[in-house]
Amino acid sequence: MSSIMNPYLSFRDNAAEAMAFYQSVFGGTLESTSFAEMNASQDPAENEKVMHSQLTTDSGFILMASDTPNSMELDQGSSYSISLSGDDGDDLRRYWDRLLDGGTMVLPLEVAPWGDTFGMLADRFGTSWLVSISNPQSGG
What we know:
With 140 residues, the protein is an alpha/beta fold. It has helices at residues 15-26, 89-100, and strands at 8-11, 29-34, 50-56, 62-67, 82-86, 104-111, 117-122, 128-133. Helices cover 17% and strands 34% of the residues. Helix 1 runs antiparallel to helix 2 (89-100).
């Protein structure tokens, strides 16, 4: 297999809820394993937490996530965003609308100075998303 880079999101106690939401946005197959299933924690309060989950979509997206153990700090930093881009405007607008449900628009999805349609949002879980729809005339 060649190398692959995938976004991996960390949550405190709601990775299962977040990944179910992302599955409702993108479709695909969601696999999840709890800390208890992997005997990965001595803390019974963590038994139902998600140790690892992976959403694999028909479009080839792979998104991974887990809950952060109680003993570890969780930095909810803003130094990252997940970018969705391409030329299928219908799909990308549909993802935009679904991600925006319960989220916050940062920059409306509209034609940008470089000619592509571009927008930014934070979903209901605080994950930042960039959506860019290529305009063939802009070269983007």
